[in-house]
Amino acid sequence: MNPQSIELRDIRYPTEIDWWPMAPGWWLVIILTVTLLFVVILKLYHKYNENRARRAALSWLKSIQNDNIIRSDTKELIKTLSTLLRRTMLAYVPRNEVAHLVGDRWSDFLDQGLDENYFSQGEGRYLITSPYKDSKSDENIDVEKLLDIVRKRIMLPIKKEGN
Question: Which residues touch 62 (CB under 8 Å, ≥6 apart)?
């Protein structure tokens, strides 16, 4: 056979596969990715909202620490810290579980979840007893330690039931 006489044709390649319409597997990957992204954003949003009360309380505590007038007046400091703790705990736990607590029950409630009994036996006890004492009584209250205890209580919130 003579190679010149053979009729040869050019090689034809198949046409390129277009990206559209996509295969069903890619649609599934896109739907799963969008759903996962939505769930993650929703969880982050809920976490951010849960921590709103904590951020506000820590901001208030920081302003108390920076206010020299409040820090110099121990009675005013204790009153302000007590108000801060009460409002913060009302944000963490339903009102009907917290609003009625006073005295030892309040200090026991504040000790929940902490590694020590800071409020019922430690420096935090002054938040319960000091407002009712004579203003002339000489108490050596460690203000820094009291502020640290309050910060610790705010940072470790008491979880609402059902969470």
Answer: none
Distance of alpha carbon 42 from alpha carbon 37, whole angstroms: 9
Rounded CA-CA distance 33/123 in Å is: 51
For the chain, the C-alpha Rg in angstroms (whole number) is 33
Region 35-43: what's the mean pLDDT?
A: 98
> What's the rounded Cα separation, in Å, for the pair 87 and 44?
24
Nearest to 163, CA basis, from 52, 56, 54, 46? 46
Measured CA to CA, the distance from residue 78 to residue 15 in angstroms comes to 81
CA 85 to chain centre: 16
The SS3 call for residue 54 is helix
The answer to whether the Cα torsion of 143, 94, 92, 60 is positive or negative is negative
Number of helices and strands (H, E) in the chain? 8, 0
Task: Provide the whole-model pTM.
Answer: 0.72
Judged against a pLDDT cut of 90, whether residue 158 lies above it is answered with no
Q: Which of 37-46, 81-90, 101-110, 128-137 has the lowest mean pLDDT?
A: 128-137
